[in-house]
Amino acid sequence: MPRLLHLIRKQWGDNKRMYVMGMTITIAIIAGIYFFNVLAAYNLARVFFDSPLRPVLYYAGLFIVGCIFAGLYFNDLSFKPRAITQLLLPASNTEKSIVAILFAVVLFFSVYTALFEAVDFAAISVAKALPATLHRTPLTREQVQQLHIFNMFDGNPVNNVELSIFFALQSLFLLGSVYFEKFGYIKTALSLIVIVLLFILYVVKLADNFLPSGGFDGDMHYFKSYDEHSGVHLIPIPWLLGWLMLRGIYILIAATWVTIWFRLKEKEV
Amino acid sequence: MIDIQNLHFSYKRKNVLSDLSVQFQPGYIYGLLGKNGAGKSTMMHNIAGLLFPKQGKVDVLGYVPSKRQPAFLQEIFMIPEEFHLPDITIGRLVRDHAVFYPKFNQQQFERYLSEFQVPLADKLPQASYGQKKKLLISFALACNTSILLMDEPTNGLDIISKSQFRKVLASVVDENKCILISTHQVKDLENLIDRITVIDNGNILFDQSIPNITRHLDCRLAQDSFEAKEALYAEETFRGNVIVTTNNNGHEGKLDLELLYKAVMNNPARVNEAFHRQPAVQY
C-alpha cells in the first residue's frame, strides 16, 4: 500500500473519535434546528423552507465548524511531545500536507455537505409525511409537497462565490494552525479580522480617492464609471489585472497550500 | 554514521551548542551525560532533524537531518523525555504506525513487551505512564532503526523496569545500530553503555570508550588521605574517601559512572590529561 494511504489510515485511526464526535454534534444541532421548525413549531416551516434560512444555516455551520476543524488540524505541533511524533513520522512533507488538506478541507466539506443534505432530505420527508390535519397555517399541504431539497450545487453563482471564500478561509486557518507556535486558531482569527478591516479601510478610503465613482462589472474586465454629465463609461481593465481579480481567491487558496508545505518543512521543535 | 562538525545552535539569544564536533559509530551504545540545559537534548534534536543547525554540519547516515526525508526518518527513532502516544489500542498502534518502519518486527515487539511485562491487550488510555513508556521503548526497538535516540529513557520506570530496560537494550545492539542515551541518572546506564560523552555548556567535556576509561582510570576507595589528595577527584563517604585516580595498577580499573561524571564536571582538563599518558598495561 502506498505510504500516502498509510498516512490517511493513521490520521483517521488517531483522530476518528474527535472527527466523529465533532461532526455528530454539528449535525445534531443542525437537525435540532430543522426538526424544531418542522415539528415543534410547524407554523415556522414556511419561513424556514421558503426563506434563505437553510443556506444561511448551511454556510454558518460550514464556515464556523470548518474553520475550527482546519484551525486545530496541526494543533499537535504546539505540544512538543506530539510535535516530535508528527515530525519524525517517516513520510514526506508533501504527503503530510496532502493528508492535512484532504482531511481538513476536502473530507470535511464533503462529509458536512452530505450530512446536511441528508438532514434536509429527512426533514422534508417528515414534513411531507405528516398527516394533513397537522398542517396548520400558513403552509398548505400543496406547498409542503412542493418543497425541494436544498442543493448547494444548483449552479447559483452566489454558492460558487461563497464556497471559494470558504475554501480560502479554511485554508488560511489550516495555515494558521501550522504557522503559529501556540493558540493558532485564535491568532489566525484575530489576524484575519485585522486583514479584513485593513482591506475594507483600503477600499473605502484609498481606492475611493484614486478611482472614479462606479464599480467593476461582473467579469472584471471593465470598470463602469458613472458621471452625472456624460453617463456611464466603460474603462477597460488590463487583461492580467482583470484575470487576477477574478481568480485571486483561487490563487490565494493555492498559495496558502504551498505555504503550508513550506511551513511544515521548516517547523522546528 | 553520525558526524557532527562545528555545530552551533542557539535559541534566540541563548547559545546552547558552540562549535561542537563529535562522531558516533554503529555497534555502540553511547551515554550522553550532562547537567540540565547542557545541550544534550538539543544535540539529539539536531541529529533527528527536529532542530536545524545555525552553523556547522550534521550528517546522519549520509542524510542531512533537517530535510527530514522519509528514507532518513525510517532509519531513526527518538524517545523524547516527554512523549505522546495516541489514545488507541496497542493493536491499532502497531497496525497504523509500524507500517512506516520497513524493518519493524512484530515478534520482537511482542517479546520486548513480554520482557517488560506489558500485556499486549492493554488499551493505551488506561495504561500508566511507566507502562506507556515501556510500550514506546518496545515499539522503538522493534522498529529496528539504525539510530535510536533516547532522552532520559529511565525516567518514570520503577527499579525492576530499569533493570529490564538495561537487559533488553543490551540484547538489541548490533554492528548496524547506534544507540544514544541522554540522561543525568548515570547509575541507570551502568554496565550498558560502550562510550561516555559528557556535554557542558554546549561543548564536549569528555568523550571516551569504557575500555579506554578503565585502562586509564580507576574508581575506588582511597587507601589514605595522601592518595585522596592526589586523586583526580575525591569524595568523602561513610566508608572513607572514594576517588577517581589514574590507573597505575596494571589491571583493568573499576568504573563508577557517577563518580567519573563528577570528576569530569569538577576538573575536565585534569581527567582528560590522564588519557594522554600511557597506561601501565595495554589490554
From TrEMBL, chain A:
Keywords: Membrane, Transmembrane, Transmembrane helix. This is Uncharacterized protein. The lineage of its organism: Bacteria, Pseudomonadati, Bacteroidota, Chitinophagia, Chitinophagales. The chain crosses the membrane at residues 20-44, 56-77, 98-116, 163-180, 185-204, 240-262. The keyword Transmembrane helix applies. It comes from Deminuibacter soli.
TrEMBL record, chain B:
Pfam families: ABC_tran (PF00005). It comes from the Bacteria. The keyword Transport applies. Keywords: ATP-binding, Nucleotide-binding, Transport. The keyword Cytoplasm does not apply. Residues 2-226 form the ABC transporter domain. GO terms for molecular function: ATP binding; ATP hydrolysis activity. PANTHER family: ABC TRANSPORTER ATP-BINDING PROTEIN ALBC-RELATED (PTHR42939). This is ABC transporter ATP-binding protein. It comes from Deminuibacter soli. The lineage of its organism: Bacteria, Pseudomonadati, Bacteroidota, Chitinophagia, Chitinophagales.
